Amino acid sequence: IDRTRLYTDLQYRYDYVAGFIGFTKEDQEFLHKSASVVAGLVPTIVDAVYDKLFMYDITWKHFSEDQEGFHAQGPNVGRVEIGSEVITFRKTMLTKYLKKLVSAEWNIAYLKYLDWVGHIHTTTPLKTSTINVEYIHINALMGYVSAVVIDALQGVEEWDSETRQKIVSAYNKFFWVQNDLFARYYVKE
């Protein structure tokens, strides 16, 4: 493994991480196979995520910062309500993300999108918004989203047990791949 390329070549990094954890084309197919069921779960998953973020002032405060066309709502976190315009926008973005997960073609364009998702939450160069979510919160949220999605999938009765197990495993592996694409902007080797 070329250590330098792990930090300079997105495809190479993905290939290494995916290969290491065993995230294969078959897993990608199982993500797609889950699309019809997951589509119905997306609103519940999105609401659960934002209800969780709303529970903690340290995570909710990020929504009162400037971001993608929304101006800061001031230092008073209480001014950003769960039904506010910025939260509605963010829920829409998470909905699109989850829908892409089960429908996107696995190619470099999709990989760049997943990388962008990690990048936009930091104050790294070449980024215009000022939002910077500390990694501890990203990591906790990824763990929570993974648990919510996997718990929901384990309750699906439309699949036989083998199919359900393979779909759950594919999601678990995917979330680790996505988490690495967050970590690359936080962890400086």
From TrEMBL:
Entry-linked InterPro entries: Globin-like_sf, Globin-sensor_dom, Globin/Proto
Domain Globin-sensor: 12-189
Gene3D superfamilies with a match to the protein in the record: Globins
Taxonomic source organism: Linderina pennispora
Protein name: Globin-sensor domain-containing protein
A Pfam family annotated for this UniProt entry: Protoglobin
GO molecular function: heme binding; oxygen binding
